[in-house]
Write a structure and sequence with these properties.
Layout (H helix, E strand, L loop, with lengths): L19 H12 L1 E9 L5 E10 L12 E5 L8 H16 L7 E2 L8 E5 L4 E9 L4 E2 L7 H17 L6 H5 L22 H17 L9 E4 L8 E3 L6 E4 L6 E4 H16 L5 H8 L7 H28 L10 H13 L2 H7 L5
GO molecular function: hydroxylysine kinase activity
InterPro entries: Aminoglycoside_PTrfase, Kinase-like_dom_sf, Pseudomonas-type_ThrB
Catalytic activity: (5R)-5-hydroxy-L-lysine + GTP = (5R)-5-phosphooxy-L-lysine + GDP + H(+)
Amino acid sequence: MAEESYILKPGQLIKAQINEEDVKQLLKLRYGFEVSQITELDAYDDRNYRILCKTVNNPHILSLAEDGYVLKIINSLDSQKIGFFEAQNELLVYLNKKNFVCPIPVKQINGSYYSVESIAPEGQRHLLRLLKYIPGDVLQNSPKCPELLKQVGLFTAKFDDALKDFSHQAYEIQKSLWSLASIPKLRDFVHVLKESTEIKIIVEILHAFENRVIPLLNKLEVGIIHGDLNENNIIVSKDGKSVEAIIDFGDSHKSCLVFELAICLCYMITQYESIECAKHVIEGYRMIRQLTHQEVEILKLCVCARFAQSLVMGTYSYLKEPQNHYLIRTHSIKWRLLKELWCMKDEEAFKLWNIKL
């Protein structure tokens, strides 16, 4: 199948349409679970559920996880990439061996880590997988703390460094609309915006990215990255000052390492509602990995590109699913911060962030 067929196209409906009773039946059929509680979690294109169970009849599960599980019903587009989910499972096992706390995949009754289900009413094919739930507070709920931001930066660099020795063929071909390298494809979705000033900013960012970043893709250091280090995917320690665990590897892919930092900065700036706070993340990051001259030159633009990606694709998804306010809950903050950051000269941003060219 051509790689382009794996990229979301305007108008494509990919989220599973399923009710909780049918989810319970799938859990019983594939995992042998008798469910006591099921709670749907916030998500973009997938269906995610936290599951607590009464009993289990599965030869691969010797005892029920006290904190429960997360069931993921993958969107029909990503469900075509079976190899990618096999790679994800290997990645999670690898990271656990490296002492990173992240979700562990759980086997179905037949010994497989996944199945592909035909789900009514459209009969689309959706991949089904289960992970152990990791308890704890996500960064979104933690008090604002410069030391925590420094630890987030440190963790980001450590995480990417740990993956230098991991490889899987599926990551060599993995493509996603959420990869920063896919920014030019955002043009197909800009029509969802209504404000002319906002459209103008997004088009300017796309143009700058195509001219300044795309030509460098083969010159920047690459590796496997998490791809979505946001405030809901980072679990913090009880004292709120360090990173305890990391979750949701659905956007992991092989890409430029500076993109990982830029993505993280976008979300930390949003969470703290402060462009200047990025300096703490960068300080922690540089304790492990120094930024090259080329990476520094494009860092502010890459942060703006992630803002653009989040705002455009969030608006697009919300128009398809208007009851899901999670998709746009931070948009007013992001627009304000993006407008401020985009108008700022690179030198001003670098001074705020304590970095030099």
